[in-house]
């Protein structure tokens, strides 16, 4: 498996890769993962993490495309090439831009290639504001289409990506498995632990609105902060807790909050391990997903739903693929929409409670680890059967 990501790190794609690996291991496979030198250790029996050599001075990689990825991806490709030269593998699994590596390596070594399509790469370079150059975007569109057409099978992570993949080919088998696996083994925080965290963050006794995830521009955090003054006016004891982000992003957003005079009602707590997410979500009276653009479903939504807490989310396609008015309060992707939604839920705790419970029940039926594993096993067994037919 080739994953051009920091593995493991607390963000969407690495989490998804982790869960897909867990499913493969559960099925009895072993996995050699070629990935970046950056990331936290992972102890899963049957998984061997093969990291590229460290590049001096490069200690982190931002979400999405960046110049740092060019030398890193080159090393990933060379390392994967070397591994295939010295070992015999049954097949290749690739994620994101490593799909292009998979096409080349599959042709060189005669191995079947399964591509995990986490996003439309051409859309990703635009939404991340990496470039708006039409020629470069067109090149990436061609590469993405080439990957989908030449892969032996594709796993798409949400309905929009599935539709995009199907529009690119009529021959490649396309499967859809939502990145909905939630680590249900994580222990629920105790009331004492929740109370201690409230005290440490100085949350008082007022309501708490929580966001977890990266602080990239497409997440809509700037709009969220612009929504806070109106909420603070109505509910002066309410506090916002934002979990995630890098130091430079936090400093920029804190400066924005200070200009608006609401920095004292926001707690930027930075990145925390996956194991601590239940604790922060347990603090919440409302969980927030203010995303402003994109079509990929945010991984956090599945965890939010399982928490049983009411969700306030912007009504854009990336979110409405999973959320509906029955299980979340959906608002326009504006500061005014976010403030009005927060005020509505804080003003009507019963409505908030009902939404949270409906969301939890919906997640148990559609987005549990059991459902994810069942879908994964069906796809992997069909892919393995095709491998055996080819070998025969």
Automatic annotation (TrEMBL):
One Pfam family hit: Glycos_transf_1
All copies of domain Glycosyl transferase family, residue ranges: 198-360
InterPro entries from the UniProt entry: Glyco_trans_1, Glyco_trans_4-like_N
GO molecular function, one term: hydrolase activity
UniProt KW keywords: Hydrolase
Residues in Glycosyltransferase subfamily 4-like N-terminal domain copies: 17-168
Classification via PANTHER family: GLYCOSYLTRANSFERASE, GLYCOSYLTRANSFERASE (GROUP I)
Name of this chain's protein: Glycoside hydrolase
Species of origin: Dictyobacter arantiisoli
